[in-house]
């Protein structure tokens, strides 16, 4: 009976809404979220009562709980976090982070109308792809260029345009899988092209391609191995030689570069990433690469190459389904522009900056983080600066380690696993890695403007 009486005293949703609390919540939060939150808290009180408890159930008493629920439901599901993993192009963490210029250009174009498909000088309909063509041509030396949703789409539309119902010759050593869902044989199948594998895992010769060419060959294809390396007794056919073969038989050569680097990284002793310019110079007819890997821009797929071929892609109705939006255009054009000055690109495009940053700069940042942590923490954790290795990630520069410095944290009150979890569940989340019995915060992928927030998060996770 006591339970029945208590249940009848539970406030109604509408009562809560009409209360001064409710009115205040409605001023700054979405109505549906406020109602859902009120309902949730009332339901949980009902359960408590049915379980025999005697909670306070006046509106005043449950207001704080409702506010907490409102806050939880109002938070976006997609949110920023701090990447302390040391993996620069981390597909799970959104790949490349945009440069300030790219962000500014997105903001400038997103909130108003733009000339996305309008030719201002003629006062007529224009082409979406025309804005970005010239800058890509200038930077890569290619005759023509077009951009689509991502590199998988770039490969797909090339196959669809030139090899539907035809054979595409690929070396067995290059049948890559990238991040689970992109696999060359599967993309081939989806496009209606027929994969013609040649050579072996470790060695493929020009004669293997030559012997496979037939009247139904649509493309000769090279694929950047991206996330693995074949070492030892190996041989692959350089693109120049494939180009020569392609010319003899009048078959276009496509090179799926994956990362699409525009700056030669060899002066930073980072080997194995051909630049787009090089591959174009070597005569590839089509080259495809990602916008958000080493290029350091937004998600996009860039196709450069011979004008005649790009024009054919332009006519493929599939292009409409793979087209990129104005925000991506804005970010991509600004990012490409930055490459007009290599010095600036190295400093201002975050991906390239993180990749080529002198280790001393990283050590300094680690030192700053450590010093700030030590100011607030003393006995609660054992902390040091330790040398470590970062990774490029995103299928770029596989097996290449980048010397870095990390702050190692070994908490005394909680386990290292608990600390990792608290950081991950914090606000903003911090993604760090555990090595042995310490947590490593890699300073390479921490942005200078994130240092204060990071320090606050680590302190909160330890003291909490
Ligand atoms: C990453 C990669 C892709 C897929 O690119 P997305 O931009 O992720 O679609 C395709 N091919 C190669 C060789 C890659 O490295």
Q: What's a quick, concise take on this entry?
A:
This protein has 464 residues and is α/β, with parallel strands linked by helices. It has helices at residues 2-9, 13-18, 20-28, 31-50, 59-74, 100-110, 130-140, 151-163, 184-191, 206-212, 239-249, 276-281, 307-315, 318-321, 326-338, 342-348, 350-356, 359-376, 416-424, 451-463, and strands at residues 82-83, 87-89, 118-119, 124-125, 144-148, 167-171, 177-178, 182-183, 194-198, 217-223, 253-258, 286-290, 301-305, 381-393, 402-411, 430-431, 433-435, 438-442. Bound molecules: pyridoxal-5'-phosphate (PLP).
Explained architecture:
This protein has three domains: 73 residues, Alpha-Beta Complex (Aspartate Aminotransferase, domain 1); 118 residues, Aspartate Aminotransferase, domain 1; 249 residues, Type I PLP-dependent aspartate aminotransferase-like (Major domain) (Aspartate Aminotransferase, domain 2). Helix content is 44%, strand content 18%. The chain contains 20 helices and 18 strands. The longest helix is centred in the N-terminal third of the chain and has 20 residues. Bound molecules: pyridoxal-5'-phosphate (PLP). The site of pyridoxal-5'-phosphate has 15 residues, from helix 8 and strand 11.
């Amino acid at each position: 009976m006591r339970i029945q009486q208590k249940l009848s005293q539970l406030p109604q949703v509408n009562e809560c809404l009409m209360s001064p609390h409710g009115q205040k919540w409605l001023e700054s939060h979405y109505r549906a979220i406020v109602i859902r939150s009120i309902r949730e808290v009332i339901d949980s009180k009902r359960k408590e009562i049915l379980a025999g408890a005697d909670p306070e159930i006046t509106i005043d008493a449950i207001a704080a709980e409702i506010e907490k629920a409102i806050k939880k439901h109002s938070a976006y599901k997609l949110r920023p976090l701090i990447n302390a993993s040391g993996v620069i192009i981390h597909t799970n963490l959104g790949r490349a982070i945009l440069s300030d210029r790219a962000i500014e250009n997105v903001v400038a174009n997103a909130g108003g109308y733009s000339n996305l498909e309008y030719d201002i000088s003629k006062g007529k309909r224009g082409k979406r792809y025309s804005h970005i063509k010239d800058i890509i041509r200038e930077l890569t030396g290619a005759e023509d260029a077009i951009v689509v949703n991502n590199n998988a789409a770039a490969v797909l539309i090339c196959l669809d345009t030139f090899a539907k119902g035809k054979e595409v010759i690929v070396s067995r050593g290059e049948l890559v899988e990238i991040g689970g869902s992109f696999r060359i044989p599967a993309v081939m199948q989806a496009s209606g092209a027929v994969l013609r594998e040649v050579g072996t895992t470790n060695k493929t010769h020009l004669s293997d391609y030559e012997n496979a060419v037939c009247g139904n060959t649509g493309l000769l294809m090279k694929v950047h191995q991206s996330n693995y390396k074949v070492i030892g007794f190996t041989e692959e056919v350089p693109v120049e030689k494939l180009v020569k073969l392609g010319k003899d038989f009048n078959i276009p050569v496509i090179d799926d570069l994956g990362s699409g680097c525009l700056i030669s990284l060899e002066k930073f002793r980072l080997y194995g990433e051909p630049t787009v310019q090089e591959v174009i110079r070597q005569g590839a007819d089509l080259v495809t690469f990602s916008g958000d890997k080493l290029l350091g821009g937004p998600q996009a797929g860039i196709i450069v190459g011979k004008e005649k071929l790009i024009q054919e892609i332009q006519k493929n109705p599939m292009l409409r389904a793979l087209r990129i939006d104005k925000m991506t255009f804005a970010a991509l054009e600004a990012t490409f522009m930055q490459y007009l000055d290599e010095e600036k690109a190295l400093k201002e495009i975050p991906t390239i900056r993180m990749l080529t940053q002198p280790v001393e700069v990283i050590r300094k940042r680690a030192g700053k983080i450590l010093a700030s942590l030590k100011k607030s923490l003393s006995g609660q954790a054992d902390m040091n600066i330790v040398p470590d290795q970062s990774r490029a990630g995103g299928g770029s520069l596989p097996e290449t380690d980048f010397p870095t410095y990390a702050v190692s944290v070994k908490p005394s009150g909680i386990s290292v696993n608990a600390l990792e979890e608290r950081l991950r569940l914090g606000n903003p989340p911090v993604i760090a890695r555990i090595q042995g019995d310490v947590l490593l915060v890699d300073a390479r992928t921490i942005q200078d403007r994130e240092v204060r927030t990071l320090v606050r998060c680590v302190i909160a996770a330890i003291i909490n």
